[in-house]
Amino acid sequence: MSAERPNNGGQHKAEIWNNPEGLLSIEMGRYPHERALRKIVSDVFRQYVPDGANVFEVGAGTGYLKELIPAEYHGSYISSDYNLRNLHEGQRRRNLQIQQASAYNLPLTDGSQDCIVDMDAYDAFPDLQGAMNEINRVLKPDGTFIHFQVNYP
Length: 153
Description:
This protein is α/β, with parallel strands linked by helices and 153 residues long. It has 6 helices and 5 strands.
């Protein structure tokens, strides 16, 4: 994580991720680009994730990514985050199926997941290798990990 303070009221990215209001302010900035983002996310999912796959999102925050995922994946989609407040806000706003979880200790059995997905989460983890090891542990042998890193002009 960068030590620089972005132009967002002087808060570090991690400070913003830890409260629903901060996450919602980030989402508002994405709205002008949402149509293109939705197209990219949909195309990636349809190309790499089979129908009926179970999908587990890590670092979901308030669940914005689920809104971009094609509807046919919503039935088996679980949104997880270490911050329960964010998840509850997402559950209220987006009817999420939630699971509080750390990226370093996912509450999933070995080799059980078809797809692990995140948006803008893994770049903020202090121990990226530990988080990647955990993904490797829970993914099925033919499973897919998708990381969306969104940068706006």
